[in-house]
Amino acid sequence: xxxxxxxxxxSQTPGFLAPWLEIPSVExxxxxxxxxxxxxxxxxxxxxDEETIKDTAVAQPLIVAAGLVAARALFDVELSTLPVVLxxxxxxxxxxxxxxxxxxxxxxxxxxxERANSMAAxxxxxxxxxxxxxxxxxEEVLAAIEASGATPANxxxxxxxxxxxxxxxxKSLADNPPAKARVIPLKVAGAFHTSHMAPAVSALEALRxxxxxxxxxxxxxxxxxxxxxxxxxxxxxxxxxxxSRPVRWDLCMENMAGRGVAGVIELAPAGTLAGLAxxxxxxxxxxxxxxxEDLHAALALFAxxxxxx
Length: 309
Known about the structure:
This protein is of the alpha/beta class. It folds into two domains: 2-123 and 194-308, 3-Layer(aba) Sandwich (Malonyl-Coenzyme A Acyl Carrier Protein, domain 2), CATH 3.40.366.10; 125-185, 2-Layer Sandwich (Alpha-Beta Plaits). It has helices spanning 26-37, 41-46, 50-54, 56-74, 92-99, 105-125, 138-148, 167-175, 198-207, 232-241, 249-258, 272-280, 295-308; strands spanning 2-6, 84-88, 128-135, 151-157, 160-166, 181-185, 263-266, 285-288. A four-stranded parallel beta sheet has the order 2-1-7-8, with helices on both faces. The protein has a four-stranded antiparallel beta sheet with strand order 4-5-3-6. 51% of the residues are buried.
């Protein structure tokens, strides 16, 4: 079985969408998504600088759009006809939900627009951020985060946990790191997946009646507990609640391993989740689809695994 995974915020880099514009259909696709998002995704994905695309209101729609563009370039059939499982990390869960048929592309871009804007507004209330803790004993890492007053916002597995909180809390964590661990500040503009994001939850609840979710057409895993979600309304519930509660990517990877996933394809802007899979799912084959040049390797991996099924 193959897992298709969609990355979260912080995976974007300046100019990462430029190679995708070499595919004739991509510019029109981006234009349509830009109209819904209310920002120029082509410009932000090709010419905007690092500081601009770090902005939550820009980064989140840009990442979801990139995943949708890459998926359309990769697969010319309905995913429901393929032996795949889908999962997304944080905002990438919106991408995965769209690919699973739960949300239309219009609804997905509307949702991420409102999510991004409301999270940016929530982040502006109190200066907050996030830091990755790499290495260390997992229990000691969680204890150090708790001692600092921060929150374990992303439990990613493979020796990586992300703490979120005020800058004072994150400085305390950096000054008192867990044994044999590094604390690395991340390029995100807020304490996502914590109580600091409660106002964004309310904003998305207000959006809910305008959405028309359908049940997933392929297995879709949840950040909440790593489990498969089978009801469209439940997916939306989890997407909304996810904004202020931790991402358990470690449990998603455990589910994938339990299903016998032998290959992982990460959609653009790729790299982070493929790296976690290599460390957290020993023996799994991975392809990070960063540019169109990676599409051939992704299709080759899929063909290899399909032939073994």
